[in-house]
Amino acid sequence: MQKIDIEMVPADVTPPPIQVGEIRIDQAMIAREMQYHPADSADEAQFQAARALVVRELLRQRAGQLGLRVDDESAVEGAIAELLERELELPEPTESDCRRFHAAHQARFSEPTTMCVRHILLAAAPDDVAARDAGHRQGVSLIELLSDAPWRFTELAQRHSACPSRDEGGELGWLVPGQTVEELDRALQHLPEGLHMQPLESRYGWHVVVIDERREGRPLPFESVAGRVRHTLCEQASRRALRHYLLELEARFGVEGIRLDEDVDQVLMQ
């Protein structure tokens, strides 16, 4: 996990004070919390850390109202867990709910498309423009050769590929989505069988690709995925209930200096 250094917090901007009820959340607390909220910028990490502390304080105060033990830091997490178990109402989805959801989201509950793939990787660093240009030109040349002599793929892979698969003639075997580098994975989903007539780019360089066979995914019957469907609906219900509950606590106790947003449930879901 990438941690955000305290020193990265902008020093020339003083954020507004944050308060939950009568409790103040100061910048030192936020700075300590930031290491647990990796983000693309210090500002975003700071916001996420502040929001997490506000959510925890709202739950702590509500737990205290109900007589749960919150005077000891070691007991707070247990009190929050008991609080949520008491107060979150989570309706159990019926079988008809599950069947309707399955019918409306069949692509979500389908076998993945699988592809038998071979490739030649012409390696080039992302910031090496000259190597990228040379790799693309070489890829075009190899594709022209393979168009006339497809039986040479194994030979050309062994000679030119920078991927360990070169020892297998460039064979990657049967792939499902997510098994290869993201850029190549996205492109493969839309390619027909055969030699692709342009090199495909990824962070590692250029790929000359042949899809030997595609097996399209098919929807799975409800009975075989009923547990997954039910779990999905329960998770969605939990997120909705938690979001509404936290926004209600925000209105009840009062929060100054920051507003909880529609994604506030992610603080606890994480």
UniProtKB/TrEMBL annotation:
PpiC domain mapped to chain residues: 112-213
GO terms, molecular function: peptidyl-prolyl cis-trans isomerase activity
Pfam families: Rotamase
SUPFAM superfamilies per the UniProt record, alphabetical: FKBP-like (SSF54534), Triger factor/SurA peptide-binding domain-like (SSF109998)
Enzyme Commission designation: 5.2.1.8
Top enzyme category: isomerase
Catalytic activity: [protein]-peptidylproline (omega=180) = [protein]-peptidylproline (omega=0)
The keyword Isomerase is assigned to this record: yes
Keyword Iron part of the UniProt annotation: no
InterPro entries in UniProt: PPIase_dom_sf, PPIase_PpiC, PrsA_foldase, Trigger_fact/SurA_dom_sf
Record key words, sorted: Isomerase, Rotamase
Family of this protein: Belongs to the PpiC/parvulin rotamase family.
Protein name: peptidylprolyl isomerase
